[in-house]
Structures are given as C-alpha cells and as structure tokens.
Amino acid sequence: MKKISVEQTVEMVGKEVNLYGWVDTKRDHKKIVFIDLRDRTGIVQVVGGEDFKSLNTEDVVWIKGLVKTRPEKLINPKIKTGTIEIEAKKVKVLNKTKPLPLPVTGDGHNIDEEVRLKYRYLDIRRPRMYKNLALRSKFIDLIRQHLFKKDFLEIETPILSETTPEGARDFIVPSRLQPGKFYALPQSPQQYKQLLMVGGVEKYFQIARCFRDEDPRADRAYGEFTQLDLEMSFVEREDVMNLVEGMMIEIYEKLNIPIKQKPFPIFTYQEAIKKYGADKFDLRTEEDKKNGIQAFAWVIDFPFFERTPEGGWTFTHNPFSAPKPEFMKDLLGKKNIGNILTTQYDLVCNGYEVGGGSIRNHTLEGLKAVFEIMGLDEAEINLKFGHMIEALGYGAPPHGGMAPGIDRLLTCITGETSIREVIAMPMTSGGRTAIMKAPSVVKDEKLKELGIKLT
Ligand code: ASP
Q1: What is the span of the domain harbouring residue 70?
Q2: Which of 242, 301, 341, 355 is geometrically suited to a Cys-Cys bond with 268, CB 3.0 to 4.6 A?
Q3: Cβ of 186 below 6 Å from ligand 1
Q4: What is the block-wise mean pLDDT of the chain (455 residues), using blocks of 10 residues?
C-alpha cells in the first residue's frame, strides 16, 4: 500500500491508508487511546486500543488504518485534518525514542537558545521551524525561476580564496601544501563576480555563502550568511535597481505577502538622515506590522569615503564601486574626497538593510584611485588587488550588481525576532556551530603538518 502524507488523509475518507510519522501527543482514555500522528505536513488524530498503550510521544511509528469522518461536534477546526480521524488497524513502532531534552511541540520561543541549537535536529521538528525552512526553500526557488527567465547563469565561485574586503575580519584556513600560507574564506564573491563579467558572462547569480568574522550582534548571524549575489554587464544603477525590485515584487506576489509601496520609494542618503536619522528605517505603521506588510525603500547617493580614526580615508560601502559619473573627475584627481558620491544603492525593509550593490569601477584607473585614496601604495595595491587591476585592463565591460541578504529578508517576512530562526543550523551567538563542537582543538600532528605552533 502506498505511503500517504498526513495532510492527504482528508481526501481518503472510507479508505485504508498507510501512514508514517511521530507520535506527537497521546491521550489515554483507558479502553481507547488517542494519538496525534505528526509528519512534515501536519497532525492527524488516530484512535487505537491496547496496542497504543506502550507508545510514547516522539516514537516513530507506522500505522495502517481506516479514514473516518468525525461526528459534527468532534470536528476540530484548528487543524487541517480536523474533519476526520484514523481508526488504527495495525501499528508498528519503527524506533522507540529516549526522553527528549526539549519539547518539540509549541513554538519553542521560551526554550534556552543554546539548548535549541545543541539539539537543532529535534528543534526543527516543531512545525514553526519546518514552515520557516519550507518558506526559505520556496523563496530560493522563486529567485531562481525569476532569474533563469531573464537569462542569468547560476555560477559557483571559490570558497577557499583570498581576502575580499567587505569591512569585516576574514576567516583564514591554513594551507598544508604551502606551509605558513593561508586561504581566506570570502566575505562575498565580489571580485569573482566582477571577473565573470570580464569573462563575458553578462548575467550572473549565485545563492552565495559569505563568511565574516564580526563581533556577534543580536540581529546578525555570526560567521556565515547567505545572499543572492548577482552581477550584470552594460547596466546603469537604475537597471540593477529595477531588476531587483521587479524580482522582489514578483516573488512577494507569488507568496501572497503584501508590500507597502510600489514602486519602492527612493531616498537619498541625505534625505534619509534628515528624515529618519539613519540610513535604514521602518516605514510601517503599527497596523502594517500586524498585517505582515513589508515596507521596502531604496537609499542612494551615499558618500563614497569616510574618515578613518587615523585621519585617512576608507570606503563607506564597497571599494569596487564607481563614483557617480559626475564625480569621476574628482576621484581620478583625488580631490574633493569627502564629497564624492558613490553609485551604491541599499535596499531597506522594515528598518533593516536587506541588501546593497553598486555600479563598479570598470576602468583600472578608477579602481586604482580608490585604493590610493585609501592610502595603499603601488606595491600594496599590486599585492592585494593586482589581479583585479590587471583584469580590468583587458576590456572589462561596464558592470554592476547587488546582493540581497536572504536570511534577513526571510526574517522580515516571517516576523521572527532572530535571524537564526530562518537558518537550519546557525551558529550560537558565541560563535559555536549548532550540534557539532566547532571550533575545536586540533591534534598536535595536524598542526605540525600545517607548520603551525600555538602560543
Ligand atoms: N559585495 C557586496 C556585499 O556583499 C554586494 C554587492 O555590491 O554586490 O555586500
């Protein structure tokens, strides 16, 4: 007999069905015993007798039973299968469970997060977590559908790599073949995606993992996060903004998630600071919040550079950005530095920055000028970014892109308070992996092989 899912049982009244799942709850009424059987699609009430007595919640079971409609007054409108119940004919325990270290019914919000992450494989049994993971999967599917329709290629870029500055510390990985040397995990695929443009790809995207060693913050995922990284050739700022906005609108419509204002309002950095005191702001009313409305806005015209504590200059967003065309002369002449505006555009949603991007410097003179303003000398530029300067010299097309943050967008949609609620196995806020015990101690022989001595 074919296995069917719990939610399909409502269409099988009068038929025998074959169900697999976990015992979600058990109610022992002496002669008859009720259980709620749970699988990923929901719960269904199953009625049994003596053979149900020994079942424990979270045992894994197979049940063969007859689907029956419930009498009118026993209908439970709160669950999808509330109009029916299963009369068990046979039950078999496929695996007994030990007592669980945390409850998996309920939303889990009140359970210590360290415990939830240590036992994440149990924590995701709760329907709320499954729903979040399913939404994430659907969201990524819709991104792919949209971009494939527009002729984008999905391309993977290296993880073991060289540093790409995004304003955080790198995670570094020692090399065994070249002792004393290290790879850096990418803070973003920024340089590789630009090199794909030099390679004539024209339209690239990737569901990209980025690694940033930042001090843990409540509203951030520590260590790694996922962004939709994309890049396009022969585009101007508005082309990229329009593409991303159109994609968001299509995806949110398909998911039935209301957006407050379309087209998305655009603020200059100056306007945003003046009006909201920050470059990220929440346009929702209390009523909007209750109704799950998502309020997007763009912020543009950021200053390119800001002062370092030492009195030099550094980039505010992305060193690979081009200035707005009217400031190119200033950039190349290294004049008027504090007033140069970048082509950077940030997307804001519900008070969070949910993505940013820019048109890039596709000429080597422009990129070199940025690094020179930042105080790098010729030798340093060549050492760190020589490959980019060289590549731009071989007929690099004008290009630009963006990277909306997938974890953050999903946090906004679900209304979850922490970004970790939409990630299957996030790190703890202290920087330990869920379930497994990384970072962990490495044996002496391993270190020796890598030529590393701990101090
Ligand atoms: N590389 C940027 C980031 O990771 C995004 C972009 O400019 O495309 O924030």
Answers
A1: 6-95
A2: 301
A3: no
A4: 93 97 96 96 97 97 98 94 97 97 95 97 97 98 98 98 83 93 95 98 98 80 93 98 98 98 98 98 98 98 97 96 98 98 98 97 96 96 94 98 98 95 93 93 93 91
Counted domains in the chain: 2
Q: Is the CB of 344 under 6 A from ligand 1?
A: no
Paired sense of beta strands 60-69 and 84-95, if any = antiparallel
Residue range 140-160, pLDDT digits in tens: 999 999 999 999 999 999 999
Looking at the structure, tell me whether residues 208 and 288 fall in a common domain.
yes
Cα separation of 295 and 259, whole Å?
Answer: 6
Same structural domain, 81 and 126: no
Check whether residue 184 and residue 44 sit in a common domain: no
CA distance 85 to 28: 16
Joined together, the tokens standing for residue 448 give 């020796």
**Is 51 within a domain?**
yes
The answer to the question of whether 38 is labelled as a binding residue is no
Per-residue pLDDT tens over the stretch 216-236: 776 677 899 999 999 999 999
Sorted by sequence, the CB contacts under 8 Å of residue 275 that are 6+ apart come out as 267, 281
Specify the pTM: 0.96
Distance 188 CA to ligand 1 centre (A): 7
* Pocket lining: 342 vs ligand 1, CB cutoff 6 Å: no
CB-ligand 1 contact for 403 (6 Å cutoff)? yes
